[in-house]
């Protein structure tokens, strides 16, 4: 008999791309690619600045949740680690790692997330195997099983009227 692990009945089905929430850091919607080929999860972060808070390493960074919007969310989080991550092209890069609560298809999990510049990528976030192994099954033929943000949330913020 094969030693194949069967999925548990508590598994959550996800599509190959989903809108996820990082609510604890003020990001209600960000589009993520669900990538079983990637070990770790990754978030598009710019202007990363490390600092010390109470003797512990922290990082402050900006997230642009919507690709065609100027809106930025500034996030502060404790630094969990610094790791060498190899991209799909084979390029190794040292990245900061933070622990974030990620809500994927209605389920909140804590995930280790590397910070990187994903400007040239189609998705602001990538959800990797380490997060998915917490009870998610991926259907590569489906998308947005957790729903889409309301149209009002998809608009770029308007400049204040003067």
Automatic annotation (TrEMBL):
<feature type="compositionally biased region" description="Basic residues">
    <location>
        <begin position="151"/>
        <end position="162"/>
    </location>
</feature>
<dbReference type="Pfam" id="PF05618">
    <property type="entry name" value="Zn_protease"/>
</dbReference>
<feature type="region of interest" description="Disordered">
    <location>
        <begin position="143"/>
        <end position="162"/>
    </location>
</feature>
<protein>
    <recommendedName>
        <fullName>Retropepsin-like aspartic endopeptidase domain-containing protein</fullName>
    </recommendedName>
</protein>
<feature type="domain" description="Retropepsin-like aspartic endopeptidase">
    <location>
        <begin position="14"/>
        <end position="147"/>
    </location>
</feature>
<dbReference type="InterPro" id="IPR021109">
    <property type="entry name" value="Peptidase_aspartic_dom_sf"/>
</dbReference>
<dbReference type="InterPro" id="IPR008503">
    <property type="entry name" value="Asp_endopeptidase"/>
</dbReference>
């Amino acid at each position: 008999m094969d030693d194949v692990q069967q999925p548990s009945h508590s598994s959550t089905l996800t599509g190959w791309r989903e809108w996820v929430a990082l609510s604890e850091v003020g990001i209600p919607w960000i589009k993520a690619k669900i990538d079983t080929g990637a070990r770790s999860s990754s978030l598009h972060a710019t202007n990363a600045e490390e600092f010390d808070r109470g003797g512990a390493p922290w990082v402050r960074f900006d997230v642009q949740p919507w690709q065609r919007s100027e809106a930025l969310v500034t996030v502060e989080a404790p630094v969990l680690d610094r790791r060498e991550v190899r991209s799909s092209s084979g390029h190794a890069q040292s990245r900061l790692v933070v622990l974030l609560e990620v809500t994927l298809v209605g389920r909140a999990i804590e995930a280790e997330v590397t910070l990187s510049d994903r400007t040239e990528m189609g998705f602001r976030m990538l959800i990797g195997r380490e997060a998915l192994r917490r009870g998610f099954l991926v259907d590569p033929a489906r998308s947005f099983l957790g729903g889409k943000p309301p149209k009002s949330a998809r608009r770029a913020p308007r400049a204040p009227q003067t």
